[in-house]
Amino acid sequence: MRDSHYIPKAAYKHVRGTKAEGSTSPVKIDFRTMSASQTDAQFRREMLCIDCEDLFSKNGERRMGMLWATEQSFPLLEMLKKMKPSHVGQGFEVYQTNDFAPADIDSAFYFAVSIIWRAQVWDWGRDIDPYRRALGEVWESKFKNFLLYRQPLENVYLSINVNSNPGPGLAIVLPICKRAAGGWLHSFTILGIKFDMYIGDQLNTDITHVFTYHDSTVVVVLTDHFKSQSFNDMSAWVNKNVVIKGKVADRFKGK
């Protein structure tokens, strides 16, 4: 087994403070201590063999590293700006996956499956598991077989939600799961891209219709993440429950 990362190692450097801020350490919100503090610690454990590390890298992580947002650019957002949306709603746009290079969509789907599978099997030790092994043993096995052998996944749909307003506050939000649309919604965010994966054989038609209309199990959506209900709910919860410590607290004194 190798020293493996839960979130790709390459992503961590992009959640540090900007150069103007002195490239400060990322702020971690700890659900066990209900605190927020700066740390350079990364989520890592002995978990994957060298062959699996290579699979995860070449089938998903490597290409995602060329698409997510950084302080300098946001390649996936720039792609969308050059495309015509298939549907425009109030505060969102939907794009056909046929307009993308197949490798981009395949890599994004593989990447999302790999992160959710890692969430399921990760050993949190003393820390609180925010995901609570929500995938379950049956889907854990199906996800593993997809990752290793590319066995097809049925009743799995992925919405790739791109932030139209990434701003300076790039973040990583670890996977969580909740009941939604007659099934389960597994979500996480990495550097301006929110992955929403719907799983279940009894999903509501208002969800599955979006995917069947686009003749794909993957759609790409453009929204302003900072105006979303999930962001507002998370911000309100953090402000109410989390104690800011250390250098982070010093930065907020007098504000």
From TrEMBL:
It comes from the Bacteria. This is DUF4238 domain-containing protein. It comes from Pseudomonas syringae CC1417.
